[in-house]
Design goal:
Helix content is 37%, strand content 29%. The protein has eleven helices and 14 strands. The chain has helices spanning 48-55, 77-83, 99-109, 114-127, 143-155, 173-188, 200-206, 224-232, 244-251, 274-287, 302-310; strands at residues 2-13, 20-32, 37-41, 63-68, 71-72, 84-87, 161-165, 192-197, 209-214, 217-222, 234-240, 257-263, 266-271, 292-298. The protein binds adenosine-5'-triphosphate. Adenosine-5'-triphosphate is lined by residues 11, 13, 22, 24, 42, 44-50, 198. Belongs to the ABC transporter superfamily. Drug exporter-1 (DrugE1) (TC 3.A.1.105) family. It comes from Actinokineospora auranticolor. Residues 2-240 form the ABC transporter domain. It is found in: Cell membrane.
């Protein structure tokens, strides 16, 4: 549904002799399947918005190719525009206008006839649970309600692909969860969703596949579990009192242990899959008569993936 090859974009900053160039997007390749929720995860300034804006025809790339919903970005930007919806960071609603007016206006801007625009508006208001306050000015809405109006506006012309730029920034956890449900509902109806986020939990919980972007380049791509599993495996930590060296000896050379470390907190065993390694570990501990205080499995997070790929934590951003 989205095929991107070698996408590049630089911006020039400053004036006259003091200009410098920022390479916002540096050769991005990606492929998004129909009906997928695809996450573009990265820290501030990584190039997420620039990529999304290019793919929605709002910015011209310096180089590269893209085909979106069957339309070529460079040769037929008009066709791309009718097949995508874009919800920018911060939304598009106007304070003094009501949700109903916004939606009808948006539909009309896409050339949809009046009766049809009104009908689609009613459907969208119901689907996004906005009917109750559809005739109140947008400035009276909560953050979550206003975001739902933004998304309803983004899909009123029934696009094939919806681009959501940081859709849950500034929302409380409950509104965030509600919005995730809305996005899943759109996916279940067959829409392809491309969303940018810097929230690890959002990418993990919501996205079918993720591209991690840093300094304009994709550093990792896959399903959340592929990414997490690929870099680190699981870590089983056995809290021991005194018998650490003897336990380490017992586990040394076992085929399910990739690596082991003896630290202050006990023995750390790096394994492919904690749930299958655990029974074997317990048997070894039992058989060796090793007394332990705790056994814990740590599954790697997307932050571990980011850390492995970039040497930095996304949580510090
Ligand atoms: N219009 C512009 N003029 C100059 N530089 C720009 C412009 N737009 C983006 N940039 C720069 O390009 C880089 C990528 O920005 P972009 O907005 O794409 O990042 P982002 O990953 O979306 O970040 P955020 O999460 O903060 O929105 C940044 O260094 C940014 O300062």
């Amino acid at each position: 549904m989205i095929e991107v090859k070698g996408l590049r974009k630089s911006f020039t900053l400053g004036k006259r002799r003091k200009t410098r160039s920022v390479e916002a997007v540096r050769g991005v390749d990606l492929s998004v399947a129909e009906g997928e929720i695809f996450g573009f995860l990265g820290p501030n300034g990584a190039g997420k918005t620039t990529t999304a804006r290019i793919l929605c025809t709002l910015l011209e790339p310096d180089d590269g190719e893209a085909v979106i919903a069957g339309a070529d970005l460079r040769k037929d930007p008009g066709a791309v525009r009718t097949r995508v919806g874009y919800v920018p960071q911060g939304g598009t609603t106007t304070d003094e206008i009501t949700a109903r007016e916004e939606l009808v206006l948006q539909a009309r801007m896409y050339g949809i006839g009046k009766a049809e625009a009104v009908e689609r508006t009613e459907k969208a208001l119901a689907a996004f649970e906005l009917t109750e306050f559809a005739d109140r000015q947008c400035k009276t809405y909560s953050g979550g309600q206003r975001r739902r109006v933004d998304i309803a506006m983004g899909i009123i012309h029934e696009p094939k692909v919806l681009f959501l730029d940081e859709p849950t920034t500034g929302l409380d956890p409950q509104s965030r969860a509600h919005l995730w449900d809305e996005v899943r509902r759109l996916r279940d109806q067959g829409m392809t969703v491309f969303l940018t986020t810097h929230y690890l939990e959002e990418a993990d919980a919501l996205c079918d596949r993720i591209a991690i972007i840093d300094h304009g380049e994709i550093v990792a791509l896959g399903t959340p579990s592929e990414l997490k599993h690929g870099v680190a495996g699981d870590v089983v930590t056995v809290g021991l009192n005194g018998s650490g060296p003897r336990a380490a000896e017992l586990f040394d050379g076992r085929d399910y242990v990739r690596k082991l470390e003896l630290g202050d907190d006990g023995l750390r065993l790096y394994v492919d899959d904690g749930s299958t390694a655990m029974p074997q570990i317990m048997r070894v501990l039992d058989g060796g008569d090793i007394h332990f205080d705790t056994v814990e499995v740590h599954r790697p997070s997307l932050d571990d993936v980011f850390l492995t790929k970039t040497g930095r934590s996304l949580r510090d951003k």
